[in-house]
Each structure stands twice: as C-alpha cells, then as structure tokens.
C-alpha cells in the first residue's frame, strides 16, 4: 500500500504532504511513513525525506517523536478560559474574577494623561518600573535581574519559550495544567512533558523525571495553581531547587498570576545559582482581564533575548495602560479594594468547601479563584446531570496532559454565588454524583 506522498526532492515531498493535508486526505494524528520506508518507496536518499520532514515540522504541520514515529500535528481546539457560549445554564466554570471587586480604573485616567511617548523611548513607564522593581526584588533577592513589560502573562510565557526553544523541544508543564499553557505549548510546536501536581505543587519525582527526558524549560505556578489551587510549600520549593541545581541552564518560568491576591507566601523554585529564569506577574486577576499587562523579572541574558522577541511585533505595551496600572497599584484605595477581594475569594471558597463536606464531598481549600473538587465518579458522567439541573462546570479532563489524570475532578468558580445558590449547587452536585453512580452500577440490558 502506497503512502500517497510523491516527490523526488525535499521541497516536492513537503509540498505533497501539504497538499494531502489541505485536501483532508491526511487527518490530525495520522502517522506518516518512517523515513526509510518512504525513501525506498519514492526511490530517494533517506536524507531527502529527513529534510522534507524537518521542513514540515518547522512549519508545525507534523510532529516527530523519534522511535514513536512521525504524525500529523493535532490541530483540534483546546478549551479556553472564560464564559461559555450564551445559554440558560448557570456557568460556574468561568475562572473569572468578580467584576464588583476590581478597582475602578477611572480614578487613574487623569493620572495616565501626559505627553505622548515616541518611538525609541524606554518601553517601561518610569513610575511603573520603579514600583515593580521594588515588588520583584523583595522576592527575587540579590540575583541580578532586569524588568520587561508584556501584554499579559500568556504573552510573556509564549515569548519566553520562543526565545529559548525550537519546535519539538520538550517543556515541563504541571498536570493538571492551566488551559492557556497547554494552548501555548501546542501552538508553539513544543512537546509537553507532564509533571504531576499535589497539594504542595510540582512533585519532586515528576520534575526529576521530566528533566531526565531532556526538557529545556519548566513552566510552573508557585501559588494558586490553576486548576488545583495548590501552592508550593517552603519544603517542596527547597527540594525542587535541589533537583534543578543540576540543570542550571534549563529555563524556569514561574507564573505567579495571583500575586497580590494570594493568601500564601511565595516560594521560588529558582536557586541563587540558576542561570535561566523568569518570574511573571500579570495584573489581570486583581485589575481585570482588560488590563492586559504583565511584568517579567528575569536574568539579564533571558531579558535580552526576550527584548529581541518583542521588537519585531509589539515593541511596547501602551504607556497609557502602564500609567493606569502604575497609579492603581500605588493608590491606597485601590490596594485596599484588592485586599478586600483577596479576603472575599478565600472566604467564599472556604464556605463552599464546608457546604460540600455536609454532603460528603471532600474538596481541599487551596488558593485562587477556583475550587478543585474530587468526585466519587468520573466528572464526565456527572456533568450531564448537572446540566439538567441548570449548571455548567469545567470537568478535569480539560486540564490534563496525561491520560486518565484528574478524570474524577471538576473545577468550580463559586465566589460570586449567593448563599442560596451555593446551597443549591452543593446539593445538586451531590445528587448528580448519586445519579451517575447509580447509572454506572445499573446492569446493562441485552437484546
């Protein structure tokens, strides 16, 4: 049986594969012939096929897995954060902050006005840089650092990986994982290596195994890990630093997305002698997603390469936006509102965990906007029963990298519910689990 691929040069072979993809004659995930087999079939040198596959991999059209073979890249959509499509269901899977608790940006609009900023001027607003430098250095310590401003945390992580990696390079990601990180790694053409997460963050054995597989970057969440809410403990951070000490040139990206809202201390995975690192802190959780800005503290080498990644496209983040953010994070009233929001998220989540306990459902109170709930049955079986009761949830399978991980979990965003709605959701979740268990135990009729 022939492969349908034609050509006698690398360019012709690559164009043939592109044509098959465009005509849908090759499907996502479908295997391509081994190099030797295709070379024999086409009567060409193996290096010609290798060069063709290399072109296709660089374009993100195929993925090479060594002995596991070469396959068409999977372009299936990845779940996204935020509200679902409009429906009559009550969406408790959004992962959004409460808009009522976000400081009013209008108080900073007048302060943002000023002379126009022109090409060639510093890319970071002086006032924001001064505040951010103090904020970051309080946690980074004496390590040399430089600051960069990006259009949000996802933009920062994407550009940090792009300046350090090539397609098919391996990246260690938490499992379960933040949806945007999964999307970033997939679109970048990198290979995700899952590292299990427990109540104290990335596991030591999981990170050690990922590093042994040759990962060139590690993306982790030191606090309020999404979706689990886990925060890295001081003991775990020391253990992870000891493992990473043997790999000083592996890029470690810490996405401290909850920062000013976090109720847990920040413990870094980056040791004093680690050479490639970046701490990313966005403002979207406490100032709102529309304030699309993140601050990056990194080692000077990474900062220089990050600046090169920024220069071809978005040379700078709007200085008007930077001034608004700078005013809000230094305003006493806005900071008081941020502290009140932090208490609100913790209190409402803790209250809902107690409600679940009364129904025999255990959930560990972590940090962050969400609650990670383990159910007595697969979440995919529970979700339809919740839909019939008017609820839309996020099931754990949307966040996983390894097969079967977190299948019995749901992520709930409940901080905006009234007491009555919270009572109803807890009861409905319990009833939905009972119905799903009953259906799973029911005998299957034959004939």
From TrEMBL:
Q: CDD domains under this entry? A: AAT_like, WHTH_GntR
Named from the GO MF annotations, one term is: transaminase activity
Q: Which residues form the HTH gntR-type domain?
A: 7-75
Q: Indicate the family of this protein.
A: In the C-terminal section; belongs to the class-I pyridoxal-phosphate-dependent aminotransferase family.
Q: What is this protein called?
A: Aminotransferase class I/II-fold pyridoxal phosphate-dependent enzyme
Q: Which InterPro entries match?
A: Aminotransferase_I/II_large, HTH_trans_reg/aminotransferase, PyrdxlP-dep_Trfase, PyrdxlP-dep_Trfase_major, Tscrpt_reg_HTH_GntR, WH-like_DNA-bd_sf, WH_DNA-bd_sf
PROSITE patterns to which the protein is assigned, alphabetical: HTH_GNTR
Q: Which SMART domains match?
A: HTH_GNTR (SM00345)
Q: Print the keywords alphabetically.
A: Aminotransferase, DNA-binding, Pyridoxal phosphate, Transcription, Transcription regulation, Transferase
Q: Which organism is it from?
A: Microbacterium limosum
